Amino acid sequence: MIITSHEDLESVRKRGLTKIQPKHPRIGVGTSSCGIAVGGMQIFDRMQELIQKEGYDITLVKTGCIGFCKEEPIVSVTIPGKSQVLLHKVRPDDAERIIALALKGEIPEDLALCRIPDWDHITGNLVYGDGFESVPDYGEIRFFSHQKKVILRDSGLINPEDIDEYIGIGGYSAAFKALNSMDPDTIIEEVKKSGLRGRGGAGFPAGLKWEITKKAPGTEKFIVCNADEGDPGAYMNRNEMESDPHMLLEGMLIGAYGMDVHEGLIYIRAEYPLAIERLTLALDQARAYGLLGKNILNSGFDFDIQIATGAGAFVCGESTALAASIEGKTGRPRLRPPRLTEKGVFGRPTDLNNVETWCNVPVIITKGATWYSDIGAKGNTGTKVFSLVGKVENIGMVEVPLGTSLRTIIYDIGSGGAGGKEVKAVQTGGPSGGCIPVRLFDTPVDFENLNMVGTMMGSGGLVVMDEDTNMVDIARYFINFASSESCGKCVPCREGLKHLLLILNRIVSGKGTRDDIEILKELSDTVQKTSLCGLGQTAPNPVLTTLQYFGEEYEKLIAPEGK
Amino acid sequence: MSLLGNGKRMVTVTINKNQYLAEEGEIFLLTANRLGIDIPHLCYEKALEPYGACRLCMVDVVTCGKTDMTPACTIRVQNGLEILTDTPQIIKHRNLLFELYLAEAPKSEVIKEMAAKYGVTKTRFLKKIVHDDPLQGKCILCGLCVRVCEEIMGASAISFINRGPYTVINTPFYEHNPDCEGCAACAKVCPTNAIVFEDIGTNRVMQSWSDTTVPLMICPECGKPFAPQRLMEKVLTKPESGLIEEIKDLCPECRRKYFTLREIRKIPTNGGQA
Amino acid sequence: MDEKILDEIIAHYPSQSGKTLGILREIQIREKHIPMDTLKLLSGKIDVPLSRLYALVTFYSFFSLKPVGEHLITVCMGTPCHVKGAEKILESLEEHLGISEDTQDGKYLQTTPDNKFTVEIARCFGACSMAPVLRVDGELHGYVTPEMIPKILEKYGWKR
């Protein structure tokens, strides 16, 4: 079926809604990579077997990830007319019991994490109903209560493998609105007004980049989604694509229309097989509805998206390296300018945005720029998804308005150090970022404030360190990472990082001297100032910040006979 | 500002607070070197696109009072361009880069001399252990050989292998590569003379490239081996080679002899007039 | 790899964008490494110089030129796993399997002499809540301690 009118879209929406809220019980099993890793698929298979064998009147679907990794596997149970209930730490052995109770309109209370009476999908609102009052409300769970879900609006609640469910909660209505009733320039204007900044780390205004791409000479252009999430300890993008692939496709479709571009690419890590699988399925389903291809939604606009896989090179997060990689070359960055917007993939003007940047677009079009810019802080509007990991009690995906303090994220949402240990620092921005000590935890998380304390936003990994963490070892870990990910083109990065690593190895093993610390500082400075691309320019940050904030840990490791 | 005969404009640039006239659009590195302002460099070659990898030619571009460190090989001359080439910061970073090069290519005399010229004679960094290195501990991975082979010769016989500190240059699988034409342009362009090859008998052996062996043409006149066969075949199939049938297989020396003989024979028929 | 299969893989990529890496990715997944002959064959088929393909295979960490053993063990080296002791897990594996970190090309991929086990490292597979984690042939093991290693290995036929 090709959707060509509002009526068509409405009919699919209604069908989708009945899939999410059927007249019989519905069970959703969290099967993102994280859910699968802890047994989600076994639970799903077990349940499917039971339901098929007995012919039970139950809808069983795969859902994405609701973000509370620590509580995985998470299973949602929806009894018609009653609150949806999330069950946590479910084991395959629980499958039978969950199904038996669901058939009776009940849930296993001992496994219940919380209940959801209604949910704001932003593009639509779902009311489930009351009931199960003994189970805590979603808003009463500390991990959830401080969050604001804009990007993760559907994650863990809808079936990412069924486009109807996405349309059911209002998906593709923003695209319909954009393509049928908005002038392309108005779309760019709206994104500019929303204040949306690139979520890949650098924070460049997205609308402005779109405008530059649109104005670049040439008719054949590309828009690219950077899904080569490379920071160790960051997996937001993977989750977003696995849990809600259509929000990305819809965002790209709207952007393409705004920029008048007809070819889209998603550059995704080869190490993300499930995300690739779900995106491929989503693309097929979108094409089948005419949401990609020729004359989309009867608007006369043509656009399609292809997947290009990366192959494990952190440096391909750098835009020119990414373009080279798509062209089938090694990811060695080239000099800029020209920027990608001028000379990108195969020499054509290219707009490159991160997964999360694209995912914001349907919301901005649905709710308007003003609604969006009211979230977050001035100059840092909207929300940001972080992966809160390391030695923190509540591990998971966290979405908060920009400008939220580190303290709120780590203590209120994360409940502080794991196992009651004292938190010492947090690393933001991955290998390009830095370690922030506890005393600076009131720092608001936004692009500028993080830069001021010597780190950066990056793509959104927050790795918590506790009292047992050796900060010099952390610096060594990141330098080792950056060195092994260096492309090897320019000498400060290729050789400089190698020698930083050798020196840090010496210090960690207790053989370092005071001179080593001086060389460390001097070399870090040169690598930062003379490297060709962002990888080398930011790689010394973990060393510089640990030297600045945890200098005494280096001192302690210096061999006493060292002068 | 003035126009040159060739239509190029002369503009004013400021280098280290002194004003000079320079050709608009020229690569600043060349401008500076022509003007006698010394900027070291290793990866720039006129015939190729600027690459910006060696980082030795970094200078400060001054815009609105702010400075930005940029490789001189990537800056194009334009009116009002202001550059600083010798600030303490630039010298400091450059010296450290020389130390890194001394550690990376400990056997390179070129690097030693170049570094010494700028006052760097020692490195504080652990020198690379050179053991069975086909590039003799002299390679600084500027990539000129790879780029010449691919972009100018169109052979793509060698490439970068691995990445980061493990990067090396060689043939695929470290095997004899039939794509190599034996032109040795790589060796000619190498700034540190790292690439070794030798003509042995009727073959050219690219020792640095896994002993890739390329047969040489034998001159039918004198019987001596000269240029690599594959390279000659490529040259001779080009219509613009302009060589007449009788001499196209000859070595350059015999060709010269041919022309000289013809000239001598021509003299009487022309009646002694030049 | 069979030439027919290679042709089929190549046919998945009608457009140039992402073509070369996409083909190599499929070869890697199928064969668990990139066989030398396949790479040479591919070079002629897609008209890309062998040197460039070899550069790609050695540059990107997803590819490996060395075949892997019977069981593939992947140790996660993401930051969360690192702060929770992933390095000690790797050391324990090396000790028990009698392999060592000796890399000429910067890629960690060690196979035991009897070809039973191959150990590789990965950046993050997103099971951060169970850190440190390792994966054996697709099966995940979480909250791993160095002491647990022999028991895990025994499950896959390792003998002391």
Automatic annotation (TrEMBL), chain A:
It holds the Pfam family Complex1_51K. Signal peptide: none annotated. Gene3D superfamilies: 3.10.20.600, 6.10.250.1450, Glutaredoxin, NADH-ubiquinone oxidoreductase 51kDa subunit, NADH-ubiquinone oxidoreductase 51kDa subunit, iron-sulphur binding domain. One of its GO terms (molecular function) is NADH dehydrogenase (ubiquinone) activity. Residues 472-517 form the NADH-ubiquinone oxidoreductase 51kDa subunit iron-sulphur binding domain. This is NADH-quinone oxidoreductase subunit J/K. Keywords: 4Fe-4S, Iron, Iron-sulfur, Metal-binding.
From TrEMBL, chain B:
Pfam families: Fer2_4 (PF13510), Fer4_7 (PF12838). Keywords: 4Fe-4S, Iron, Iron-sulfur, Metal-binding, Repeat. Gene3D superfamilies: 3.10.20.740, 3.30.70.20. The keyword Transcription regulation does not apply. CDD domains: fer2. GO terms for biological process: ATP synthesis coupled electron transport. Residues 127-163, 172-200 form the 4Fe-4S ferredoxin-type domain. One of its GO terms (molecular function) is oxidoreductase activity. InterPro entries: 2Fe-2S_ferredoxin-like_sf, 2Fe-2S_ferredoxin-type, 4Fe4S_Fe-S-bd, 4Fe4S_Fe_S_CS, NADH_UbQ_OxRdtase_75kDa_su_CS, PSI_iron-sulfur_center. Residues 9-89 form the 2Fe-2S ferredoxin-type domain. GO terms for cellular component: membrane. It comes from the Archaea. PANTHER family: HYDROGENASE SUBUNIT, PHOTOSYSTEM I IRON-SULFUR CENTER-RELATED. This is Ferredoxin.
From TrEMBL, chain C:
The keyword Iron-sulfur applies. The keyword Iron-sulfur applies. It comes from the Archaea. Keywords: 2Fe-2S, Iron, Iron-sulfur, Metal-binding. One of its GO terms (molecular function) is 2 iron, 2 sulfur cluster binding. Its cofactor is [2Fe-2S] cluster. PANTHER family: NADH-QUINONE OXIDOREDUCTASE, E SUBUNIT, POTENTIAL NAD-REDUCING HYDROGENASE SUBUNIT. Belongs to the complex I 24 kDa subunit family. This is NAD(P)H-dependent oxidoreductase subunit E.
